[in-house]
Amino acid sequence: MTKIDLIDTTVRDGNQSNWGATGLDTGMMLQIAPVMERVGFHAIDFLASTHMGVAVRFKKENPWERLRLMREACPTTPLQFLTTGMRFISWEVASEELMEFAFRLLVNNGIRRFAIMDPMNNVPAMLNMAGITRRAGGEQIVAALTFTLSPLHDDAHFATAAKALTETGQFDRIYLKDPGGLVTPERAKTLIPALKAVTGAVPLEFHSHTTIGLGPFSYLEAAPLGAEALHTSARGAANGTGQPSMSAVMGNLRDLGMTVDVDDEAVAQMDAYFTALVQAEGLVHGQPGEFDRAYFRHQMPGGMMGTMKRQLREIRREHLLPQVLEEVERVRAELGYPIMVTPFSQVVGTMALMNVMQGERYAVIPDEVTRYVLGRFGQPAMPMDPQVEARIRDSKRARELEDEPHMASLDELRNRIGKGYSDEEFLLRAVMPADQVDAMVAAGPARRGYDPKTRPVMQLMQELVKRKGLTSVKIEKPGLKLELNGGQ
């Protein structure tokens, strides 16, 4: 029987796609980590630089501490870091020196597997990043070939790229990354065999989303055709704009006569934990999305969709989402059909959101859109709209950015930031605002555990302590009596 491995995406992509990367903190991850270690995953998709920035900015938690603690809890299951081109946390294009320094720190703190993604599927750029990662000590290097739809991106295009990547011998595995959940079962029937025909003995993985309900069906077509590993999440973090549910995929694969060699009891524990966590924290419990053909046009990936929904919710403008998605389609075409994956999904999505919010298109242009048009991220697959390109290139800000210096060397950064910091804290200060890192340091160590059952009590206590003049609190229920007394 064909054996299928599982890559768990719960704490990174599931968290990002459904909860804007802010749903989980360190304690929540550590509480379930020993169970995740028992499951028998081929790897755990654990970290990207975006999540490191979110840990500092929103949780005031040290992402390096989080990584070390997770490595201790999962000593045999490789933890994965996803690269997104020549950048680390900051939007600024980083030097090879800084990237190698960052990757070495990631290896030293517990990352064993690197997924190398280039936002333009640029093969030379991916090979260069693989070299940087190897020099930094990466144990397993995986090429993430990003799926998109355009007149150029047929099966032959992806097969040519996969062949070029495989023949170098720089990659241990190849994975087809479908951030928009756009691979239909019919496309899987042609694309997976085309990839396997050129990758040979190099294992092939498949990563998709349930954004429009296609992921579970495409997985079942891909596995018998040669996809040796599938990316899934535990219930609670699965579905929605995230990955298919692990337990459902397992059941369907086994029904096809395939082997999924994992600890079923540990899988059930993971499902139960994250389901309880979602209920306790009031998070979205995703269901596979209804089929929506519009996604084939705007191609908004799960992670960015989650982030955009959170941003609109924070400004109480959730009703604008359909209008923003229509604008995403228009902006993407005007910018030359970039692949909708980090950082381009953010570039296009942010520009579309600002166009809708401003009421005038391209009235305010973010620096990252300008840098994209100036070619800082490479050249798009198709020509940009001449009028839009000219408007951005001819702006005063574009002329300023043309002359901006590249990121300083590590020595220059150390001189600017100062001495006395660990390498890990120094790197955070090199790519993030100092006040955010200061707040993280002041917050101290992250909590080491989490119990969903205590959440209602903690919420009650937090609300009670806000009340002025309250001198005592008494809580009674069968088997529990709690009384707190204090002065005025």
Your description of this structure?
There is one protein chain. By secondary structure, the chain is an alpha/beta fold. It folds into three domains: 5-281, Alpha-Beta Barrel (TIM Barrel); 295-402, Conserved carboxylase domain (Cyclin A, domain 1); 455-485, no CATH class. 50% of the residues lie in helices and 11% in strands. It has 22 helices and ten strands. The strands form two sheets. The protein has an eight-stranded parallel beta barrel, surrounded by seven helices. A two-stranded antiparallel ribbon has the order 9-10. The mean pLDDT is 92.
Summarize the structure.
This protein has helices at residues 10-19, 26-39, 49-59, 63-73, 96-109, 123-136, 155-167, 185-199, 215-222, 246-255, 264-281, 295-298, 302-314, 321-334, 344-358, 367-373, 386-393, 396-402, 410-417, 423-431, 434-443, 455-465; strands at residues 5-8, 43-48, 79-82, 111-117, 140-146, 173-177, 204-207, 229-232, 472-477, 480-485. The chain has 488 residues and is an alpha/beta fold.
